[in-house]
Amino acid sequence: MFDVRTGRAARLAPFSFSSGVRAAAALLLAALTATGCGSAAHVAATTTTAAAPPRPSALGLHVGVIGPIDVAVDGAVVEHGTLASLASDRLVVVSAASPAAEHLPAAAAAHPQTHYVLVGASAQGQRLPNLAGLVLRDDQAAMLGGAAAGLVIAEETGMARRVAWVGPEERPLAGAFARGVHGVVPGAIVLRQWSANRPAACKEAALTAVGRGASVVMAHGGICAEAAIAGAHERNGVGLRVSDFELPDIAAAQVVRDAVNGVYHGGEDLEFGATSGAIGIRTLDPRITPTAGVRARAAAQQLASGRRPTG
């Protein structure tokens, strides 16, 4: 069951033939019957082909997608483009990682008949009736990342098993990461290596953490996380980021499915956590062993079932 609150309902008008198409079909059938073209079965088939509506894929709800989102929902016709080119679609789904996200509120205000969804960020500050935000539980993603980190150091033989959270000071996420680590390795040491939100500073923080004995470093996201992971890799460490454990496609697909069923969301945030399937293993550092990877996926299943991951 997805954790989605009920939004405003707006039913699409059902598709129907126009009277002109019905008349054309009737005339064609009469002409074929009068000339005796083939059997009755052949006549029926020819009539259906001539008077049929467009292919089923053209009859679905047109959904625009911008950014790294993959949506495949029955009844939806997905097309990729820009905010300008997709403004006539009934629903436009935009990744918060896309540059278009910055212009999304203006597009929603300019096209009130189109519904917009921001995937991976809040839209509460906008309060637009045709704009909804899909918020992923990053605290759960951080906890699952902590469990994965714990599984990595669980394979080590030394006594000083250490991991680190690096980057800007984000105590709630760092705390969730620590809980994930300790669920797997209760005695592990979790370092907090704070830094400015700049690539050079984040990389330096990761290098410092590895120098203090951390085998795994985890950061929130963006260019800071990229730099931190690069620093960890330079010292043969494992690097993780929150987005490694977020599945935004799952959340986007649910909102598209709602729209196909005539329900649109706006003026609100919808929260997606592990029980919805939106928190799980998206990717893992290739330095993580296959055994630890399998156990990390098992930990994801534990979190999805509402339990604290233990590996």
Give structural notes:
- The protein is of the alpha/beta class.
- The chain has three domains: 19-52, no CATH class; 57-137 and 247-275, Rossmann fold (3-Layer(aba) Sandwich); 138-244 and 279-304, Response regulator (Rossmann fold), CATH 3.40.50.
- The protein is 39% helix and 17% strand.
- It is built from nine helices and ten strands.
- It has helices at 19-35, 40-51, 104-110, 138-154, 171-184, 199-211, 222-234, 248-260, 290-304, and strands at 61-66, 76-80, 91-95, 115-119, 131-136, 162-167, 189-194, 214-219, 238-241, 268-272.
- α1 (19-35) packs antiparallel against α2.
- It is elongated, with a radius of gyration of 26 Å.
Strand order of the largest sheet: 2-1-3-4-5-10
> How would you name the CATH homologous superfamily of the largest domain?
Response regulator
Please report which band the strand proportion falls in: under 5%, 5-15%, 15-25%, 25-35%, 35-45% or over 45%. Answer: 15-25%
SSE pattern: HHEEEHEEHEHEHEHEHEH
CATH architecture of the largest domain: 3-Layer(aba) Sandwich
Whole-number count of domains = 3
Spatial shape: elongated
What structural class do you assign from the helix and strand content?
alpha/beta
Measured distance between first and last alpha carbons: 24 Å
CATH-defined topology of the largest domain? Rossmann fold
Radius of gyration: 26 Å
Number of separate helices: 9
Mean pLDDT over the full residue set: 84
Look at the structure and give the CATH class of the largest domain.
Alpha Beta
How many beta strands in the DSSP annotation? Answer: 10
Low-confidence stretches: 1-57
Instruction: Specify the helix fraction band.
Output: 25-40%
Largest beta-sheet details: 6 strands, parallel
